[in-house]
Every structure is written in structure tokens, then in C-alpha cells.
Amino acid sequence: MTPDGGSWTDWLWPALGLMLVLEGLMPLLHPQGWREVFRRVLAMQDGQIRFIGLASIAIGALVLWLSS
Fold it and tell me: 10: part of which helix (H) or strand (E)?
């Protein structure tokens, strides 16, 4: 239950939908660039990929915190 009486699913599904729309833009608009990004990721070490994941989580949490 959220403070306004709604459920957490009231914002979860729209957030998931927005994420999927944003994730789909790159392969739709520039598929060759999208492939190149994946080629580069495949060449990275596990630690580098983990750092990118950690940075993404930290930036996302900061954005959520600043927007609330």
C-alpha cells in the first residue's frame, strides 16, 4: 500500500512499460549500432559488466530518490 492508498502495482506496470519502450528504441532506430554495442559488451571482462550494472542501479536509485 502506498501513502495515497494505491498499490505498488499502480506504478510498477507503467514503469515496466516505459522501460520496454525506451529499450526498444535503439534496435528500432539503429539496429547496426545496437549489434555493435553487444559485440563490445561480449568483449568485456565480468568485472566491467558488473560495474556497469552497479552504476546503472545507483543512477536509477538516485533518479527515483530525486523524483520523489
Answer: helix 9-29
